[in-house]
Design a protein that fits this description.
The complex is a heterodimer.
Chain A (H helix, E strand, L loop, with lengths): L8 E5 L4 E6 L9 E6 L6 E6 L4 E2 L4 E4 L5 E6 L8 E6 L13 E6 L1
Parallel strand pairs in A: 1-9
Antiparallel strand pairs in A: 2-7, 3-4, 3-8, 5-6, 6-7, 8-9
Chain B lengths: L3 E4 L2 E4 L4 E8 L5 E7 L6 E7 L2 E5 L6 E7 L2 E7 L7 E8 L8 E2 L3 E5 L1
Parallel strand pairs in B: 2-11
Antiparallel strand pairs in B: 1-3, 3-8, 4-5, 4-9, 5-6, 7-8, 9-10, 9-11
The chains are: A mainly beta, B mainly beta.
Chain lengths: 109, 113
Amino acid sequence: DAKTTQPPSMDCAEGRAANLPCNHSTISGNEYVYWYRQIHSQGPQYIIHGLKNNETNEMASLIITEDRKSSTLILPHATLRDTAVYYCIVPQGAQKLVFGQGTRLTINP
Amino acid sequence: ETGVTQTPRHLVMGMTNKKSLKCEQHLGHNAMYWYKQSAKKPLELMFVYNFKEQTENNSVPSRFSPECPNSSHLFLHLHTLQPEDSALYLCASSQPQGRETQYFGPGTRLLVL
């Protein structure tokens, strides 16, 4: 099962794009990459997921490298409300989301 | 609003008390989950229920007793807890097909004195 590595913290200016990296070098061919975020003391919120193609929704874009060993979550125009811990997850089996420490993203005014 | 509600939002209990946490989902899902998040630690999966049947118990002590009477409701019964059980308890739901997105409730903040 793949594990993920993320930087512990990042800062971004309000209005700029926030790019959050994730390494998952041991990911296998049929494993998806999921991104969730957790705003302080709230439940985690699903953002986006992908297999090998880039994905975009109303919240974010997910760029997955061609070898699938890493990905980047992009928040195109970060706001103060995007301050949260962001988790990159490769599920460790059916229904098993294993949350690591994630990246604490701080959006600065 | 994610469609998953939890009550109470905050709970303080003594080590000899018995209390229950409640979770309800309005998403038509058939899988429900309990997670625990202790201070400064990642979320830990506790239990998984699929179609009301428990399919995962992640070595959780017996002082935590889950109950799933139907696919929309999930309870966590608590008895003789320890102070180290103080944590944020999160409920989630999904469809049980494996790669389905999980939707989380707001959590119950539990303090055991």
